[in-house]
Structures are given as structure tokens and as C-alpha cells.
Design a protein that fits this description.
With 139 residues, this protein is mostly helical. It has one domain: Rossmann fold. It contains 5 helices and 3 strands. The chain is globular and about 40 Å long. The structure holds adenosine-5'-diphosphate (ADP) and magnesium ion. Adenosine-5'-diphosphate binds next to α1 and α5.
Amino acid sequence: MGKLIIIEGMDGSGTTTQTKMLANYLMGLGYKVLSTAEPTNSSIGQEIRKWLKEPLEKEPDLTLLLDTPAHIAYERIASRQGPKDFYETVPMLNRLRERYVHFVQLEAKNTALIDGSASPNEVHNHVVSVISNKLERAL
Ligand SMILES: Nc1ncnc2c1ncn2[C@@H]1O[C@H](COP(=O)(O)OP(=O)(O)O)[C@@H](O)[C@H]1O
Ligand SMILES: [Mg+2]
């Protein structure tokens, strides 16, 4: 039976990196993996409206929030190529972070906060261990 896992987080939190690492890891274990991404250049307001108005057809089995301090996310965005969105300032990212955390706490069922500030490998190991624990499946 397939599992729907969502890796959520604001811009710069590491969602693209962790989604790729997780997909590769699971494929390496022989799982079939279907990986999709929401557009990254949408604001939190649009995201939340989307979630409220267009509920997923299948309830996620697990939602992981990569919780990364605003100044770290900001540094990552700043060092990345490409144009910046209007909300990509440290104070705005701080507010986004609070809203994400609040949102996940409201949806406390099948959600977990993951510290996104560690190295990519450390965050990945944490992601794998949380999925393994929550879905009660050795990974
Ligand atoms: N744990 C990490 N530590 C340091 N840099 C990271 C980490 N995760 C991602 N990065 C880098 O930060 C930038 C943003 O990461 P990305 O995965 O694209 O985040 P998001 O998709 O959430 O915006 C990229 O340049 C990426 O290589
Ligand atoms: Mg991304």
C-alpha cells in the first residue's frame, strides 16, 4: 500500500534537497517513488489557500515540516542563483516560519517538526528515522 509523505517548509528550508535525498534513498531500498513539487515561488498565503480550498485527494500519511531558522534560510536563498521573492527578508521569513509551525501544530495528526538547520546528511538521517518511527516500518 502506497504512502503519501509531504515534506513542507518555507523557501530556503531545504525541502527540495531533502525530497531528492529521500526519494533516492527510498528508491535505493527498492521502493517505487513518485515525487512531485509545488511551485516554490508562491507565497505562504497562496499555499495555505491552496491547502484549504483544494484538499488533497488522499490524506497524507505523514507531513514533515522542515523548520529552519529565518536567518539560515535567508543565507541559503541569498547564496542561491535566481531572483528573490518579495517576502525573502529575515523578518518576513521569521513570520512565515511561525505560520508554518502554527499550521503544523493545528494539524498535529501525522505531522512532525524536523530541525532543518543541520547539515543535509544530518537532516536526511532525521527524516528517515522519523518516517521509520511514524510509519512503523524499518527503513
Ligand atoms: N541542510 C543544509 N545545509 C546547508 N545548505 C543547505 C541545506 N539544505 C539545502 N541547502 C542549500 O540551501 C539552498 C536551498 O535549499 P533547497 O533545498 O532548494 O530549499 P527549498 O527547496 O526549501 O527552498 C540550496 O542552495 C541548497 O543547496
Ligand atoms: Mg524548493
